[in-house]
Please model this.
Amino acid sequence: MIVRFEKYQGTGNDFIIVDNRDQSLKGLTVESIRLLCDRHQGIGADGFMLLQEKEGYDFEMKYFNADGNEGSMCGNGGRCITLFAKKAGINKKVFNFTAIDGPHEAQIRAANYVALRMKDVNQIVEQKTDFILNTGSPHLIRFVKGLQQLDVVKEGRAIRFNKEFAAEGINVNFIEEEKEERAVFIRTYERGVENETLSCGTGATAAALVCCYTKNGFNDVTVKTRGGDLKIEYNKIAETHFDNIWLCGPAHFVFEGTIDLTTGSHA
Model:
């Protein structure tokens, strides 16, 4: 099977994207997606996405983790597939698409700068010193000191595979508030990738909500990832209720090509 693909990245979170509006990839397997995302034998990516037709929307985003299984919402992926959609001929300033967690709006606010409206959040659960919430994907937030030196893979894997979370999995985010106002540094261990990624959009969103800086009203928080800075805009309605949440940041086309999944060769 010959697959034509494009690769994009948003603050270092990288994705393989394929236009499947003709439904030609119905037979794509878990093993095929795993091969595509493999950084040694395939193209290499944190995730794989299909752009598909969906009645009533500009497109549907279908997302798969690097392990080949269908994943929950990916914020940086949503921003990247918006650029892909524009390049594929869906020439709009405001995009309305659907993903596994429901409808989303996306705006290309400037060249290679995309803002994505996220789902509303109505619950943050405190678990000892940790915080658990769902921003399209489930996240655990833990405040730490000395984040640059932390072994994120070791610590994140221990939480992700403990008895409470092993079955469904959870994304584990370690955060450290910056000295400058309204800024937080984050490192994320992602389920499905089972490793640290350079950035996680839903994780950055979760971190910003947990670090809410005002009692009510508009918030504007910079979340610093190892792959670059993201801006989270949101409105706080009540203690754990948030709406009008926007994940904003850079997204870039990297390269395009074809890969033969029968041999693994690509060009």
Summary: The chain has four helices and 17 strands. The CA atoms of residues 34 and 68 lie 5 Å apart.
